[in-house]
Automatic annotation (TrEMBL):
Record InterPro entries: Bact_HTH_transcr_reg, Chorismate_lyase_/UTRA_dom_sf, Tscrpt_reg_HTH_GntR, UTRA, WH-like_DNA-bd_sf, WH_DNA-bd_sf
Listed Pfam families: GntR, UTRA
Protein name: GntR family transcriptional regulator
UniProt entry tagged with the keyword Zinc-finger: no
Any one GO biological process: negative regulation of DNA-templated transcription
Keywords: DNA-binding, Transcription, Transcription regulation
Sequence ranges assigned to domain HTH gntR-type in this UniProt record: 19-86
Database matches in SUPFAM superfamilies: Chorismate lyase-like, Winged helix' DNA-binding domain
């Protein structure tokens, strides 16, 4: 059997046909074994110690660690690096991130950054079916799971739909739960678009990540049972801490 047909051949693990790999990739592969031995929360040796162990330059170790950081295998803690836990798996559905995090046994929280009224620009006004310049709520919150910052969310909705939002809503709780319990309304139709981006310096500071860390950006527009626009949401999730799933079922 040729290597190309062998599912266990090295090429399946990222080694090209010619068998030559960059030094950082070889170090990264060896580091993955170290991570498995240490377990979640385990503290990695310093770059200097790893460079001596693997007999490579510190920059080679640093590049390997950067890739592991982007993949979510490790995370920074103080001045050290520790083994990260599994990513949060968020299904793409009409439910909120709060409810998705709670289903995985984690404790979701929100930290309010801003709750303000803005004048709707023409694009936002068209999405919410209101007049250009009409007042909209803008609510910006940091997303947390077990006190770990994992994202940043901006919600826009017409003030006319919810004039008492600033008075009645506790911003550290689930917005969708508030809509259901206090207004008897919830999203029943949702459009979402996902793309990869880099956080701005401000966003990286709020989330607590390096600016070069890839992010997953979700644009969501939701409607109620009557088909009326409910909100527009821009959610930025850490690419090293989140993955998304969707269930597709082709009916006969």
């Amino acid at each position: 059997m040729s290597d190309a047909a062998d599912p266990h051949a090295p090429i399946r693990a990222g080694i090209p046909e010619h068998g030559r790999v960059p030094k950082y990739f070889a170090v990264k592969t060896r580091l993955e074994s170290v991570l498995d031995e240490l377990g979640e929360g385990g503290l990695l040796p310093t770059e200097r110690e790893l460079a001596a162990r693997f007999e490579v330059a510190r920059e080679t170790v640093r590049q390997a660690l950067r890739e592991l950081l982007i993949q979510g295998r490790v995370r920074r803690k103080g001045r050290g690096t520790v083994v990260a836990g599994p990513k949060l798996v968020q299904p793409l559905s009409t439910s909120s991130c709060t409810e998705g995090v709670r289903r995985q046994g984690r404790t979701p929280r929100r930290q309010l950054i801003a709750l303000e009224q803005l004048d709707a620009d023409p694009v936002l006004a068209g999405e919410l079916r209101i007049g250009a310049g009409a007042p909209v709520w803008h609510m910006e919150r940091v997303l947390l799971a077990d006190d770990e910052r994992v994202g940043l969310e901006s919600t826009y909705l017409a003030v006319s739909r919810l004039p008492g939002l600033a008075r009645d809503f506790a911003p550290d709780t689930s917005f969708y739960a508030f809509l259901r319990e206090h207004l008897g309304v919830e999203p029943v139709s949702v459009d979402e678009r996902i793309e990869t981006v880099l956080a701005t310096p401000r966003e990286a500071l709020l989330i607590g990540t390096p600016p070069a860390l890839p992010m997953l950006l979700l644009h969501r527009s939701s409607r109620d049972a009557n088909g009326e626009p409910l909100e527009r949401v821009r959610s930025l999730y850490r690419g090293d801490r989140f993955s998304f799933t969707v269930h597709l079922d082709k009916k006969a």
